[in-house]
């Protein structure tokens, strides 16, 4: 490849129209080309100003007619496709008003310094604005993202992004998706994220983020997906989570969260997945969890939860997965768990549960795994257990 790995692929589709003079268009492209280590790539050898093109506005004919990958409309550059150069660039009109970018030079200045291309990889689709991860190579930091105030989707997953999430992301008030998972981002989640009130999906998982979960997340009332798992986030789960009535999937697992699970989670009546495993959460499993009647997966294992299992768990009749193992839960297993007729996997092992195994478990005809070992259960195994069609694992001891 002609471009070294410190330079990153830039793909831009339907992002802007050019509003500057043709000579300035050509000059901006040449400045861009000059950032390539091998700026004399044979495919871009045609990118040069002719002698007669040295005068302002006189080079537009050459660029439109002779420059590789350059397409013009009405004598103005409106599309650039140099994917065959191995740089992956793709420029085309649309959305000047949307992004408020008035020149190619303005756009380039927002994304990279003269010495090194900054890690913004863009690709688009004809039907939507998109800010997305392409094959970017080793990227280092998010830069000037707050200038793109009309972005609808930001997707920079699985790169090598470093540094903090800039507070300027609060300017992205039109973004519906902000996804930067599987990077090396560190520092706090900025409270300015609460200004992104159009967000429907926030995916920050698998980074090195630390500090508290900002209460401002409660302002993202359109949020449906919230992934914060696999970071180093500490502190408590803010009660403001109860404001996110549209949440469908919540994953805060594998962090350093402490404190109680707030009773406000009962407000998440649309949630189908709630994960908070592998933290330091303590206190009771709140009875309000029984209001989350659409839940299909509930994973709270590997915490310090204590006290009895709430009978309200039996109201979660859509549950297919219930993991509460490796806690300090005590008391009897509620008979109401026999109402979970769709349950497939249930693991209550490594707790301090006592009394006997409920006969109501015979209702769990879809159960594939049931783990109850390392508890303080007593009494005989109910004969009804023999009616269960556990096919993968039954460990009661």
UniProtKB/TrEMBL annotation:
Keyword vocabulary terms for this entry: ATP-binding, Cell membrane, Glycoprotein, Leucine-rich repeat, Membrane, Nucleotide-binding, Phosphoprotein, Receptor, Repeat, Signal, Transferase, Transmembrane, Transmembrane helix
EC numbers on record: 2.7.11.1
Residue ranges constituting the Leucine-rich repeat-containing N-terminal plant-type domain according to the UniProt record: 25-72
Membrane-spanning intervals of the chain: none
Signal peptide annotation: 1-21
Primary location: membrane
A Pfam match: LRRNT_2
Origin: domain of life: Eukaryota
Listed GO MF terms: ATP binding; protein serine/threonine kinase activity
Record's bilayer topology term: Single-pass type I membrane protein
Protein localization: Cell membrane
The reaction(s) this protein catalyses: L-threonyl-[protein] + ATP = O-phospho-L-threonyl-[protein] + ADP + H(+); L-seryl-[protein] + ATP = O-phospho-L-seryl-[protein] + ADP + H(+)
GO cellular component, as recorded: plasma membrane
InterPro entries hit by this protein: Leu-rich_rpt, Leu-rich_rpt_typical-subtyp, LRR_dom_sf, LRR_N_plant-typ, LRRC69/RLP
GO BP, sorted A to Z: defense response to fungus
Protein name (record): non-specific serine/threonine protein kinase
Organism per entry: Capsicum annuum (Capsicum pepper)
Lineage: Eukaryota, Viridiplantae, Streptophyta, Embryophyta, Tracheophyta
